[in-house]
Amino acid sequence: xxxxxxxxxxxxxxxxxxxxxxxxxxxxxxxxxxxxxxxxxxxxxxxxxxxxxxxxxxxxxxxxxxxxxxxxxxxxxxxxxxxxxxxxxxxxxxxxxxxxxxxxxxxxxxxxxxxxxxxxxxxxxxxxxxxxxxxxxxxxxxxxxxxxxx
Length: 150
Hints:
Layout: H1 2-15, H2 29-38, H3 52-62, H4 65-79, H5 84-90, E1 96-97, E2 101-105, H6 114-127, E3 135-139, E4 145-148
Antiparallel strand pairs: 1-2, 2-3, 3-4
């Protein structure tokens, strides 16, 4: 799976496509948690592979790498909690909300609540991104995503 992810990343870099999976977290706890959670698709984020800046952020924000990893895992587990995605869609405040889904342009993904960013990132990390898609459909009550060219 790692080989496929590396090829996917290389293609996206060459095409200038921005990822929903952060390549570098900011100093904010939300970005750090999202970064660690989505890196689990690449067998996690080993402490020795993290930048010194991120290591300092993790120590300052969470106390330890293990605590940060637990918080990241909790975020991923929250995605599967019944009603969590539906509730986050209701509170999103961005995109078009329908009774069954949230439609959002890829450029607005950073404006989503953390749980929805993680949900979209999981789909992208697991399946990759569909070339040419610029609308993401996050289903409210089903564990699935869709995309289109708007």
